[in-house]
Specification:
Layout lengths: L3 H14 L3 H13 L3 H14 L4 H15 L4 H14 L6 H14 L2 H11 L8 H12 L3 H14 L7 H13 L3 H14 L4 H10 L1
Helix pairs in contact: 1-2, 2-3, 2-4, 3-4, 4-5, 4-6, 5-6, 6-7, 6-8, 7-8, 8-9, 9-10, 10-11, 10-12, 11-12
Length: about 210
């Protein structure tokens, strides 16, 4: 019902009755969903102190610090890296590796971000956004064809109706760069259906004629 504030007392009661790392994390994310991100981070920081061996708590803490970082708050990014570097390694889940990769991108360490995100794309079950972030890193490092392939891998894993017009245009351009004109036209049509006035979509369509 999306009544996040009404849900909170019940989650708090569960934690009080039977404390456990998973319930502590659930409470933190309940705070975050209710719009209290600062309290959510505090909840996880306390949980990390109570359960220092629980790796999932550090991963969750890294995720919330990244949410607070927005577009690159240095303190928040460093906090995310501190939490994630504590527990994330080559054998970690794709989700955890992707979070670390995102934090590394925001910190400006694109070389290590590429390495970590490459690992994320071959861990199963794979986190689809690993391909998206990898594409951005590769593009920033001047490796256009590899960036296009990573972007198309991402597009293959997510429903097109969940993507905005801007990203669909970028995917259409990736198809075009790799020589698949028909796929480029289909993707571009979807983008224009979402945003008929999108200038980038119209510019790309002129290249396909």
């Amino acid at each position: 019902l999306r009544r996040f504030d009404a849900r909170l007392p019940h989650v708090e009661a569960l934690v009080a009755l039977q404390p456990a790392p998973a319930r502590e994390r659930a409470l933190a994310f309940a705070y975050a969903r209710a719009g209290n991100l600062e309290r959510a981070v505090g909840q996880l920081a306390n949980a990390a102190q109570r359960y220092p061996e629980d790796r999932a708590t550090y991963v969750a803490l890294g995720r919330l610090w990244l949410q607070r970082a927005g577009h690159g708050g240095r303190v928040e990014v460093n906090k995310a890296l501190e939490a994630l570097n504590t527990v994330v390694g080559p054998e970690s889940s794709s989700e955890a590796l992707t979070l670390l990769g995102r934090a590394l991108i925001l910190s400006g360490d694109l070389g290590r971000a590429e390495q970590v995100l490459q690992q994320a794309t071959v861990r199963f079950p794979v986190e689809p956004s690993a391909f998206l972030y990898l594409s951005r890193v590769l593009e920033s490092r001047g490796r256009g064809p590899a960036a296009d392939r990573a972007l198309l891998d991402y597009a293959a894993l997510v429903p097109s109706d969940t993507l905005d017009a801007w990203l669909l245009v970028r995917i259409a351009d990736a198809h075009l760069q790799l020589g698949d004109h028909e796929a480029a036209r289909r993707t571009l049509s979807t983008a224009l259906a979402k945003d008929p006035s999108n200038a980038a979509a119209h510019a790309l369509r002129s290249k396909l004629r």
